[in-house]
Amino acid sequence: MLLVMVRHGQSFGNLNSSRCRDDTTNFLTRKGELQASLVGASLPFSFDAVYVSPLLRARQTAQIVCNEMRDKARAPLTVVREFHEITEEEGDRRKQERSQATSALYTLMAHSHECVLIVSHYHTMQCLFDALRVEPAQRENSQGKHVPHCQPFLWDSREPEKIYAYRMDLDKG
Question: What is the mean pLDDT of residues 19-45?
């Protein structure tokens, strides 16, 4: 199984230091839309399944990526509520959210998909990396803890100890 994990494109909430609390108004910026478009146009994979966070910016990113892929994205978007944005604060809530996201990942990995796209959020992707037991030093180009907007990361079950950044120039937008 090949997992392609993408953090959502830049959103207005990312530009606002107070963080956008209302998901219904946290749209992608024009740059975020361009980032998602570039990802969709650049990925050479054909996805059996596309899983996405229920939050607007992730759903917009996934839709744009799939629209750009045209015939390569043959799977419909499936919202996975457990892939929502995980809280930054340490504590019981974060532990529960991480546990739910990990459980959802293992559930979808049990399906017979060959190639899967997941579109989610910064802390959620870190959780998924941890669930895949990928050491921070092996997260090529993720700079240990940083997950850039719309940067695709690849995990292959044939080489499960590594995550690879798919090489793209996302600063064109």
Answer: 84
